[in-house]
From TrEMBL:
InterPro entries: Solute-binding_3/MltF_N. It comes from Kiloniella litopenaei. Keywords: Signal. PANTHER family: PERIPLASMIC SUBSTRATE BINDING PROTEIN FAMILY 3, SOLUTE-BINDING PROTEIN FAMILY 3_N-TERMINAL DOMAIN-CONTAINING PROTEIN. This is Solute-binding protein family 3/N-terminal domain-containing protein. The keyword Ribonucleoprotein does not apply. Coiled coil: none annotated. It comes from the Bacteria. The keyword Signal applies.
Amino acid sequence: MKKFGTIALVSTFLCSCIINFSIIVQAHAQDGKADSARSLHLVTEEYPPLNMSRDGLITGLATELIRLAAHENNIKLKIEMMPWKRAYHIAKNRPTVCIYSTWRTAEREDHFTWIGPLAKDAWSFYAPKDAYIKISSLKDTYRYRVGGIDGWAFTQYLQQNEHPHLDLIAVEDETNARKLQTSRIDLWATGRISGQQIIKDQKISNFEEVFAVREIGLWLACNPQTNPDIIHDLQKTLDKFEQNGTAQKVRATFQFN
């Protein structure tokens, strides 16, 4: 994914300086300069356009919203990108670690303290248009090879429902898009946000969403031992961003509606 759409996204991000870029730059500069008692370690994965690596920098809609909120509250951030399964394990087991962008499910609810939501998503299946695949229920997908990401809540849901043909080898969502293009899988199980962004960036015209299991929110999920004052301050600031237009400006920066 790092090779697809880089120039377009970075150009869009830079050209948006008139609405919010100067604040975002200040937020980047703030990383690492706050009191150690006001610090968070964030872990994330490639899930464009919310969290993604571009030219060696971790950016994206969710990343910049969190950075801005941290900057406003003098919170030091350390952000690392890694495969989802590793990131989830770290956030679940280490104090002061948060993971984003995280689907909030009943199974995960008690393991984290939640900040957000950052975006609204859906669990979706994509197929090639010329495959003429029609899906009206989850069971209809059971006769197809489905590519997903190990450790994702969507994938775990499919496993809980005993899906017989899951391919969980890929560690990045873009890999499953390529596997669908080359007929190594029949259906691509992904989040609608990531799926649509990858289709756009890779200029794929032959994919369509054939079924959505459910709509679901994406959140910043923090280890329960995280400083409650930090949790409160970030939530309050993100709520303010939704009310004063800052969140909408950041979304526009990444061409996200």
